[in-house]
Write a structure and sequence with these properties.
Helices cover about 30% and strands about 15% of the residues. It is of the alpha/beta class. The chain is globular.
Length: about 475
Amino acid sequence: MPTTSFVSLVLSLFLILVTVSSAKRYEPNWASLDTRPLPAWYDESKIGIFLHWGVFSVPSYISEWFWWEWKGTKSPRAVTFMLENYKPDFTYPDFAPDFKAEFYDPNRWADIFNASGAKYVVLVAKHHEGFTNWPSKYSWNWNAMDVGPNRDLVGDLANAIRKKTDIHFGIYHSLFEWFNPLYLQDAANKYTTQDFVKSKTMPELHELVTKYEPEVVWSDGDWMVNDTYWNSTNFLAWLFNDSPVKDTVVVNDRWGSNTNCKHGSFFNCHDKFVPGQLFKHKWENCMSIDQGSWGFRRDASLSSIYSMDELISLLVRTVSLGGNLLVNVGPTSYGEIAPIYEERLRQMGEWLNINGEAIYATKPWAFQNDTVNPDVWYTSKKTSNGTVVYAILLKWLKGNVLELGTPIVSRQSSITLLGYSGSPFTFTGQATHGVQINVPTISFYNMPCQWGWVFKLENLVNQ
């Protein structure tokens, strides 16, 4: 007779085999891929950091599209800049040796991102210029190991983040390259050939995923032609079925000119996207602290930089409407995150240390924006005692009464201010809906934060 331990072992192996065989397989078509559930970590995270870094960080002028401005559209400002500052035979690849990243300390970056309160980071592994920030086998002599930094920028940051934080690591990858001859030939053939996709795009994506195991694959550069040319659905089926991150990875919606705002774990729809109302599908607002560029600009003015009032307001509105905020900074060519961007990220983290309860793992409430006070936005969270509603006030009240139009209160309701040590506030319910909250005068030194104040509403009638 077999021993009890042997029987248990056989049963365990059987259950594993049953689980593996019964796991859903996704087919390489949108009807199947769109049925994949969104991994919970992404919706709960709410905030990510975007990093645009590459050879374009050397000229650090106009934007990360500098090469296209210079040689593509031949914009006067780019052409003039090059004529006045560089020798006549200078080429864009000549910038690469100066992309040295000599002060790049991924551990310091990880500390900044951790202090910011962000829960995921998306690093540009390759932008439209084609330069890979990792030692890609498919980008000979146009990658960060062969020229410039002479190191694996992607791997170094992935390792630092995983070692020092609980932040999820992700990568951005451009499907196309402005001046790659293989891509230009495919385009000239009206995309009836796929030489660029087969020899460059897809091998790079598989290389990135298998080598670095990113939990976000943020695609871009898709807009010229539909997903069939890019072989997008075949890649995503592999990503969701067989890749090392198949259970946790999320992707955006930029996989072809026909997929935008239609297919993907989450939708970007367009840069800086904020819908006017609650959106049915999970979405993300990717924006940049420098409103004029995603990459670092040496000539950026303070007026183009988001203030903390503006940044907190955007974060609150985004989360209230069900989205995530992906906050971009452009590091310098020498590997530093400029002090103004570091300050913004650390200030965001200070705010979240007090008010993160109203942001992380929340859900949109029945109302997103208050009906009486347009400066109040709502989030909610289910607890063992019912649903808690957070009313986030973006402009501090002028008097001592905060009037809200949507919450319905009772004697059992409770209203407090996150980060404030005083007693719960008294309030007066209106006849059918709404509440007037009596807020005592709070000294500057006792205010919980400088921007965005969160009133926690418990035991509402309409929770």
